[in-house]
Specification:
CATH class of the largest domain: Alpha Beta
Number of domains: 3
Order of helices and strands: EHEEHEHHHEHEHEEHHH
CATH topology of the largest domain: Rossmann fold
Helix content: 40-55%
CATH superfamily of the largest domain: P-loop containing nucleotide triphosphate hydrolases
Strand order of the largest sheet: 4-5-6-1-7-8
Number of strands: 8
Radius of gyration: 21 Å
CATH architecture of the largest domain: 3-Layer(aba) Sandwich
Number of helices: 10
Length: 234
């Protein structure tokens, strides 16, 4: 499992768009399952995307569909499975995230943590080979955060998948990932195992991991000399 951390959200979101084929790179390429993503035609791109699972930042459940129909959506869209089998698979996916009993509820009836877990069940509905997580811990209380983190790790191992976790939640992600890429200003400034990232002497990484107030990201926004603003004599 890989974690992408960093100081700028848009760079990491762009990365996910490249992997999914929504953007074409100006240089270089993304290769998945032996195929260069941006060279695929529409049919090939859609076929490749069926091998991907995506957990959006705030779940992005279909608000007018029940929990059951949210999880069943991809199965109905991308397979010819009979409804009887889809029924059993949906309940299995919901059971895996501890929410089988919510299958008849609407998203508006779920707590934030429950909605994120239903979205996780939907993300793994087709047993994808690659699962992408966009800030999966954002807005969660400590209990829900711990539950979601544990589920991400366990589902990744159970499916034998590769997972990419884009996150600002350093401490939680370092508990569950195998490898970390740290991005700042659109470039990778550090990479390594969780222990190596914790011990890094790179200024950006050290400030971010340890939550320090001042460093490469300054506390004070650049401005004139303080004495000048207060009309004080030098």
């Amino acid at each position: 499992m890989i974690s992408i951390m960093g100081l700028s959200g848009c760079g990491k979101t762009t990365l996910l768009r490249h992997i999914g084929g929504a953007l074409k790179p100006a240089s270089g390429h993304v290769m998945m399952d032996g195929q260069i993503v941006h060279e695929l035609g529409q049919e090939g791109l859609y076929a490749m995307r069926r091998k991907l699972g995506m957990l959006f930042q705030f779940g992005a459940l279909f608000t007018d569909m029940s929990v059951y129909d949210n999880v069943a959506f991809q199965m109905r869209e991308h397979t010819d499975l009979p409804e009887e089998i889809i029924h059993d698979l949906v309940l299995m996916k919901l059971h895996a995230v501890g929410l089988r009993g919510t299958h008849n509820l609407m998203p508006s009836e779920l707590s934030g943590g429950m909605a994120r877990r239903v979205a996780l069940a939907r993300a793994v509905a087709l047993d994808p080979m690659l699962i992408m997580y966009d800030e999966p811990f954002a807005g969660l209380d400590p209990i829900s955060l711990s539950v979601v983190g544990d589920l991400i790790r366990r589902l990744n191992d159970s499916l034998g998948a590769t997972s990419i976790v884009v996150t600002h939640d350093i401490q939680e992600s370092l508990k569950i990932v195998d490898y970390v890429y740290f991005m700042a200003s659109g470039v990778i400034v550090a990479e390594g195992t969780p222990d190596e990232i914790r011990a890094s002497n790179e200024d950006y990484v050290h400030q971010f991991v340890h939550g320090e107030m001042d460093g490469p990201v300054p506390f004070h926004y650049p401005g004139r000399d303080y004495r000048q603003d207060l009309n004080l004599q030098a």
